[in-house]
Inverse folding.
């Protein structure tokens, strides 16, 4: 697991890639790690690609399959810091359309939260009219 690090921030799993290239060789291990976390009940995952400059189609496939699993469980997968090349591969493959992506882990985490005003307005007691 030297190529990946896992941390939990505010209850969300942050999986950081600690490599320059993410290929089929790393995809298999990464999928196993993510599957184990999903099996444990983790439904919202952030993938930090800050150090990664290249992602091959197999690795993108792992991200898409993971996104589908999380979505079927009511969760989601968010990506952080798509590098220039990574961004173009995601764009060319069409994968960029399904993933939410952010510049920082903090932005991704905050996107999970509903602003308090929205929460309060959606939970106001309804008036009973007679």
């Amino acid at each position: 697991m030297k190529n990946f690090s896992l941390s939990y921030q505010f209850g969300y799993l942050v999986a950081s890639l600690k490599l320059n290239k993410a290929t089929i060789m790393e995809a298999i291990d990464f999928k196993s790690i993510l599957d184990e976390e999903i099996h444990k009940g983790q439904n919202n995952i952030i993938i930090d690609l800050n150090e990664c400059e290249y992602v091959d189609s197999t690795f993108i496939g792992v991200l898409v399959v993971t996104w589908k699993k999380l979505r079927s469980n009511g969760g989601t997968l968010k990506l952080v810091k798509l590098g220039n090349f990574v961004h173009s591969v995601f764009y060319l493959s069409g994968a960029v359309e399904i993933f939410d992506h952010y510049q920082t882990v903090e932005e991704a985490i905050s996107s999970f939260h509903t602003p308090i005003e929205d929460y309060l307005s959606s939970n106001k007691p309804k008036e009973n009219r007679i």
